[in-house]
Structures are given as C-alpha cells and as structure tokens.
Design goal:
This protein has about 400 residues and is mostly helical. About 60% of the residues lie in helices and about 5% in strands.
C-alpha cells in the first residue's frame, strides 16, 4: 500500500476519504542493462499480448470462414475473444499504471459476456432449435436447471455493467480507493458483489451441465468448460489475493521495483503470460475440425450444407459482435422468474409457439433418444436412419446422440 503520512491516515478516518498515497519509492536501478523493471515487464507483456492476439485471431478466423453452425460458432468466437481482451487490458494496465483501475472493469464486463456466450453454447449443444430444445429440456427433466442457469448467468453481465459504471464514478470522485478495504469505500463493495455474482453464475452453469451431461457429452464440453473456468478462476483468485496484499501493506517497494510495479505490474504480467498459454490451449480445445466439410466425405459434418460466414468470414464476425441475443436473454429474465413460479405441467401436451407444433412430455433417457422435428425418437445405428445426412464417428461428434433428418 506504500507509505502514508500519519496526518493523511488520521484525516481519512475522520472524513472517510481515501488516504493520499505518499509513496516514497527508493531511487530505481536498472535490472537488465539500462532497463528498469517497469520497462522490462512492458516489453514482456507486449510480446505476450502480440502472440496471444495473433493466435486467437487466427482461430477466430478459422471459425468465421468455416461457419457451418452459426448458433454454436457465434458463441465460440465470443469465448475465444476473451483472450485478446484480457491480454490487451493487461498490457495497457502495465504501460499506464494510473489507468488500471478504469481498465479492469472492462475486463470483468467482457468476462461476464463470455460466460453468457458459454452458456448459450451449451444450450446449442443440447439442440439448435429453441423450441425443440425447450421441449427436450421439459421432457428430460432439465428445464428447472436451464431456467435457473438462464437467470443466474444473465444477471452476471448486468451486474458487471453496473459495477463498471459505479467504479468509474467513484474513482473519479475519490471514493473508490483500491488500496483500502474499509466499508465506507466503494472498492470493498464492488469486490464483494463481484465475487457473489461470479459464484452464482458459475455454479448455475455447472448444475446445468450436470443435468444435460448425458445429452451433450459426445460434444466434449468438459474440456471447453474447464478451459474457460480456468481463465475465470485464475483471474478471480489473483484479483482477490492482490487486493488483499494492496490493502494490508504487505507490498513494499525496493530499489528494483516500485509499489506500482508490485501492485499493478506483477498481477497484470501474470495475466499476460497466462493468456499465451490459454491461446495455445484454445487452438485444440475450440478447434474447428468438427465443423469442416472434408473432401470426399459422403456426409456433411455438423453443418447444414455449407459455410455461412460470408466472404472472409465477415458475416460470422458481424453476428458474433451483435449482442442482441444476450440483450433479449436479459430482458427475458422476468419471464423466466415467472415461469419458475408456474412450471409447465408434466405428462401433458404443450405448444411451443412454433407454428402450432406440439410435444408430449415423456420420460426419456437423453443418451438413448434424439430430438428430431420436435419429437423424441429412438436412435438407430448409423445407416438405418432414413434420410440421415450426418456421419457418426470422432470427426463428426454432433451426430452421436442426435438424429437429423433431411
């Protein structure tokens, strides 16, 4: 927390204003050649940012130009983009220490947005068509977890947006005080609310995944979930640790590094290095192979007859940055809350709202039944399903448990 004058500390207790940091950093000496520690970590972070962004943009463009299932790959592109966001924020936080407190909320907001995208990806794994997915979730008994997850996940970006605004306003007003955990400063409340909102969102996704696991396991969602959770968890824990260190006065400047180097530079550098690792891991975990149409194949893997991303993937990128689906989901939260009070009847016929189609609620084992044209139908071995367009096997995982008919 640096060194504070006795007068500043006493005045902060009496008028509840953030103490003025009279940081007495010792004269700095170079650590490598004539480079200070700050310049060294700027170079390292910049190199990490460039590498992470190049790898991530390469993977994004691979999905955009092989855009065979828009409802899935739209979310995948959004998830991958979390790496450039974190890498750029980390670099700018190191390059401009004073801007870090304004940049971090942007990182948190995109994290919430990406978590919402991951939830939508899991929903697309269950069933692309919204009405058919709803019918399946009701008949399989997972509708309760889906509704709870919809509410818990979509509150996350709303809360993070509000906290971003609160942080910017209170920081400008001098009442945020990132170096103190006193209850009369905004920092501690923003931190606590962030923790609660994050935990609620992540736990709800885990419950939804557990409820739908037999249905979506063939899509290998677990590695995707672990990779994404690792980013969220690591940054979450690091923020808590360094927040505690900042407020407890443990960090002490030396002749090699300043207080800002320790409180802002080091945690941001750690994130920069982590993004390099995650960018490489995402190349495999969110690979595009399953969306490719292979030359000579007799069936189209996953997609619906061709790539739909437009020239150079422009259409796919435009859909990924269009957040209308997230906004609609947020606006539907009141309706979701109402549906929890009045759950649909089990064992009845209900309308989905799609051209009068109706479905009958039946108890089915997800691993034994697929959803096709709004009805639960038993799957047959590959080659025995009339009109099947999709091939089974490790290269075409989407067809393992879901029957698609032409």
């Amino acid at each position: 927390m640096g060194h504070f004058s006795h007068h500043d500390s006493d005045s902060s207790k009496s008028n509840h204003t953030c103490p003025i940091e009279n940081i007495t950093n010792p004269p700095q000496v170079p650590v490598i050649g004539d480079l200070s520690f700050h310049k060294v970590i700027i170079i390292i972070s910049g190199a990490c940012m460039a590498f992470s962004c190049l790898v991530s943009f390469y993977l994004i463009m691979r999905h955009a130009t092989h855009y065979s299932i828009p409802k899935e790959q739209r979310q995948v592109i959004r998830i991958i983009f979390i790496i450039p966001v974190f890498a750029v924020v980390a670099f700018l936080s190191i390059a401009f220490y004073s801007a870090e407190v304004y940049l971090k909320p942007v990182e948190d907001l995109y994290e919430a947005f990406a978590l919402s995208a991951f939830f939508y990806l899991l929903c697309a794994f269950v069933q692309e068509n919204d009405d058919e997915r709803q019918a399946f979730l009701i008949s399989s008994g997972a509708i309760k977890q889906h509704t709870a997850a919809s509410i818990a996940v979509l509150q996350f970006p709303v809360v993070m947006l509000i906290l971003l605004i609160v942080t910017e306003i209170t920081q400008a007003a001098g009442s945020y005080c990132s170096t103190s955990n006193k209850i009369y400063f905004a920092h501690i409340w923003v931190t606590v609310i962030t923790i609660i909102s994050t935990v609620i969102a992540i736990m709800s996704i885990l419950k939804f995944y557990k409820a739908t696991k037999p249905t979506i396991d063939h899509r290998r969602p677990l590695p995707k979930l672990i990779a994404f959770k690792a980013i969220v968890f690591l940054t979450f824990i690091q923020n808590i640790i360094f927040s505690f260190l900042n407020s407890s006065g443990v960090l002490k400047p030396t002749s090699h590094y300043t207080f800002q180097d320790l409180s802002v530079g080091v945690p941001s550098l750690i994130i920069s290095i982590e993004m390099v690792i995650f960018s490489l891991a995402f190349l495999y975990i969110y690979r595009t192979r399953e969306y490719f149409h292979k030359n000579g194949a007799t069936a189209v893997p996953l997609g619906h007859g061709g790539y739909q991303g437009g020239p150079m993937g422009v259409k796919a990128l435009a859909q990924a940055v269009n957040i209308v689906d997230i906004v609609k989901g947020v606006l539907a939260i009141p309706r979701a809350l109402a549906s929890r009070k009045n759950p649909p009847m089990q064992g009845k016929v209900w309308a989905t709202g799609s051209q009068g189609t109706t479905y009958e609620s039946v108890a089915v084992a997800p691993q034994e039944y697929g959803v096709s044209h709004g009805s639960a139908v038993p799957l047959q071995p590959y080659g025995q399903q009339q009109g099947q367009l999709y091939q089974h096997g490790p290269d075409y995982p989407h067809s393992a448990n879901t029957a698609y008919h032409g």
